[in-house]
Design a protein that fits this description.
Blueprint lengths: L1 H24 L7 H67 L14 H23 L4
Length: 140
């Protein structure tokens, strides 16, 4: 909003500068020499106002960049949490998918401890490796 207002203000003041410049350069007798001194002063003030407007536009642009950077950092932090959660559940879904298939000859079906050691052992091993890896990378 502020950037748009400053742009509109600049667009309003810029023609005034051009008008004053043209009036000072004109060779007409309508503008007397003492008036030219005042026109020069008004022209200088107009240039100063344009410089101030440009400075404010730069400040507003910088503030917008800081805000967008802060917003991006917050979104990155949220995405990091979601990525860690998704990474935890991916191997679990894969293991559950493999054990959920209907095979006629599944080697673990003949072993009494296949389900607790195979299924839960695989899940715990993968979670342990992921937690170790994430802590080593300082993501957790």
């Amino acid at each position: 909003y502020m950037k748009r207002e400053l742009t509109l203000l600049r667009k309003s003041v810029w023609p005034l500068r051009e008008l004053l410049s043209a009036m000072m350069r004109s060779e007409t007798d309508l503008i007397k020499p003492p008036t030219r001194v005042y026109l020069r002063d008004v022209y200088d003030h107009t240039v100063q106002i344009l410089d101030i407007i440009e400075s404010f536009r730069d400040v507003v642009s910088g503030m917008l960049d800081i805000y967008l950077s802060s917003l991006s950092n917050k979104m990155n932090a949220a995405m990091k949490v979601l990525t860690v959660i998704a990474t935890f559940f991916m191997p679990l879904g894969f293991i559950a998918g493999v054990y959920g298939m209907n095979f006629e000859h599944f080697p673990e079906l003949k072993w009494a401890w296949a389900y607790p050691w195979g299924f839960w052992g695989l899940i715990l091993a993968s979670l342990t490796v992921m937690v170790y890896f994430f802590r080593k990378k300082k993501w957790l």
